[in-house]
Task: structure prediction
Amino acid sequence: MKFHLIGRNLVWFTMTLPALIWIIVFKYLTLAGVWIAFIDYKVRTGLFASQFVGLKNFEFLFSTDTAIRATRNTILLNALFISAGLVVSLSVAWLLFEIYASRFTRYYQTLILLPRFISWVVVSYFVYALLAADTGVVNSVLKHLGIAPISWYRTTQPWPFILLAVSLWHGVGLSSLIYLSGMIAIDMQLYEAARIDGASRWQQFRYITFPTLLPLVIINMLLALAYVLNADFGLFFQVTRDQQLLYPVTDVLDTYIYRSLIVTKTISMAGAAQFYQSFVGFILVIVANAVVRRIERSRNESLALF
Amino acid sequence: MIEAGRSDALPGVRMPSRRRFDAATVVVHIAVAGLALLCLFPLLLVVASSFTDEIALARNGYSIIPSKFSVEAYLAIFNKPAVILRAYAVTTGITFVGTILGVSMIALLAYPLSRRDFILRTPISFMVFFTMLFNGGLVPYYILMTQYLNVQNTIFALLLPHLVGAYYVLILRTYFSGLPDELFEAARVDGAGEWTIFWQIAVPLARPALATIALFIALNYWNDWTTALYFIRSPDLYPLQYLLYIIQSNAQAMALQEQVGQIGTQKLPTETARMAMAVLATGPASVLFLFFQKYLVRGVTLGAFK
Result:
């Protein structure tokens, strides 16, 4: 190699060092931590001297109802969020697209994106303002209508839908903007031609917008499915105010792992649940990506994550 | 047909050309404006209740228009500002330092990865990629922070975890690779070293992408409460969002004590004061958001969101 290239490479390598060291410590050394799932972890003996117990932790984990329940809740709620999220964000994107030329659209976009940047703690404050038993807005409205108020934080049944509403409020802004940017990229002449042929707005959506967006939709769905065992800790911990009464429908793997690790300090249990979540997640991501690759190859576009 | 002569029907100008002011457009505007208000409503509710008289709030419940206007909640906070000022200092400090450190580390890693002559380009890129596929999760990370790095209960615990987002590295790498090669070659011919080229050419040209990434990192730090939940026990180090959470969960514990007939010894902020705290904690982030919203919307197109 030429001398100046070696010099350049040395400088470049030096540049990468701070971030590279950070990545090695936080992302690679932590990988050793998955070993916790297979040992009887004691703080005193640490990661390497604690006793190896094989699959005991997993046997124990899956003999508890809590872990099964957390898995079921995570998958079912994610399925609900993913399907409702798709319909709502596509609709919102389409609405925004219909008025994209208007100068108001910028402001609409900003407001719809805003909830994404409110911390979950503050979200839990206003959900409380809506749902508080005596003073909440929802119960005030119910009283007004002559319906008996509901003690929301003690009633399990409505919570999947409350969480869905909050999750949509929080996430639709972003996903609809992603679909919107896909729609803007469509050649406008297609629409001109369709209009000349007398196509209605719905027909334009049905036969131009939707088919063009379909690969993007499929890819987003696949990636969402790859993360089906992961839940947003903030949503489930803060918005429910960590109410134990609600656990039967709101406890997910992330809240279960947090509780086992930090509250009840059953670290081996947390480790086993964590390994199972990460490992299944990893496999799902690989599979999803392979499928995306397949689609991509057939369409000659680059869409996959890696 | 009528629109054929309009400039926005030209190929390459990707603007929907439906500027006709028909009934459907009005309906879409109303629907989208309604959605935007729906996104804003919960925040307005929190602001309104922070300006409501405490007794009026207890009697009439939360509402979007204060039943009796009062700034008492804010006066109460500003009367004893030590706690919230402390939390402000912690949050501002980690947001400021974390953003500068984070963006610098990301840029310094992304730039060499965008150079075709860099011999470690492929292996290091893969190392960055892989962290996005396998996520060890909370348990190994918790063990690393508390048992090996021993940073619990220090400011480093709040600062370290969010520095290098793999996703941002990849976005920035793509951005850097898109810059014209001639610029770099010309600088080299003029005798500029790699550091000079990085600071004087690459960084200024990538300013929009850097600003977007900085904004995301800043909002991330500002809204972070989980890190404190995991690692911080000393009240001196509470960031704002975590302080809000602690106040909320203490109030919840007090309410429980009252129910079982015990009288709390601690005086806690009233409900309106808590809402005022939430407003004060969200305020700066919302201003940041509104000022830089064009960078956020651009972030969506850059793919800065996961």
User: Anything to note?
Assistant: Chain B touches chain A through 112 residues (CB under 8 Å). The first helix of chain B runs from residue 23 to 50. The CA atoms of residues 4 and 10 of chain B lie 9 Å apart. DSSP finds 15 helices and no strands in chain B.
